[in-house]
Write a structure and sequence with these properties.
Layout (H helix, E strand, L loop, with lengths): L4 H5 L4 E10 L2 E8 L5 E7 L5 E9 L5 E7 L3 E10 L2 E11 L6 E8 L5 E7 L6 E9 L5 E8 L7 E11 L1 H8 L11 E9 L5 E11 L5 E7 L4 E12 L1
Antiparallel strand pairs: 1-2, 1-16, 2-3, 3-4, 4-5, 5-6, 6-7, 7-8, 8-9, 9-10, 10-11, 11-12, 12-13, 13-14, 14-15, 15-16
Length: about 240
């Protein structure tokens, strides 16, 4: 067997991969990778330790998510994503039930009205009427600046959100950057410090504060999310691989 000299000249690259997420000490998410260190399966867990869903990830030739097959034991949800150029534009989901009930469908779409703005459209059961629209405005840093949410059937529930960020990378961004297209809502690059919610009039509604800690490599080790009604503690485990 022969080896190309260039194989020896390539420096080894150390990768830190998200492996497990815990909420309040209980396993919430288990992440699995293929031989190329791309996520190919994720297990989500209930509070009692049972698996809530097993999600198989299929990528297209460009490394973007093309299908997510989620097994919830009593039904299987299959998301099929469509791209236009570099942009994700459509998410069509089918729900197939173990008990033989008729298959149902869901639909989500994204529009890009101008630079750094994404409009997320969630459709009603008829797949024609838009029930919710969320407009996300991003900063050049890759972080979300503002989210404006419209609930067309209940406009009294309309809100907007504003954010402040830490310097560390969010775990949602680690997943999304590994398998682009997975997240159904736009993901900010950095970890949140706080999230404030307002009514369209500017009236304050709620705030979530995040207390973040990082490991010796600079990755998010844990954070506490403090809500008006209580709190949650997230903890993260990583594995190091050589590429």
């Amino acid at each position: 067997m022969s080896c190309d000299k260039n194989d020896y000249d390539k420096p080894a690259v150390e990768l830190e991969l998200l492996e497990k997420v815990y909420i309040d000490g209980k396993l919430y998410l288990d992440v699995f990778y293929d031989e190329n260190h791309k996520i190919n399966r994720m297990n989500y867990y209930k509070d009692n330790g049972e698996i809530k869903s097993q999600r198989q990830i299929q990528l297209d030739e460009q490394g973007r998510v093309k299908k997510v097959i989620s097994d919830f034991s009593n039904y299987v949800a299959t998301r099929t994503l469509t791209y236009k150029g570099e942009r994700k534009v459509l998410d069509e989901t089918s729900y197939e039930f173990v008990n033989g009930s008729p298959t149902t469908y869901g639909k989500r779409a994204w529009e890009y009205p101008k630079a750094n703005v994404i409009k997320d459209l969630l459709y009603a059961d008829d797949l024609i009427t838009v029930s919710y629209a969320s407009t996300f405005t991003f900063l050049e840093s890759g972080n979300l600046e503002k989210k404006e949410r419209e609930v067309f059937t209940h406009p009294d529930q309309n809100t907007y959100e504003q954010y402040q960020y830490d310097e560390g990378i969010s775990y949602e961004f680690m997943i999304e950057s590994n398998i682009p297209g997975y997240s159904q809502i736009p993901v900010a690059k950095n970890q949140l410090l706080n999230r404030k919610v307002f009514k369209p009039s500017g009236e304050f509604v709620a705030e979530v504060k995040f207390l973040n800690t990082y490991n010796e490599k600079g990755y998010l080790a844990a954070y506490g999310a403090q809500y008006t009604t209580g709190s949650e503690e997230y903890r993260f485990e990583y594995k190091t691989v050589i590429k």
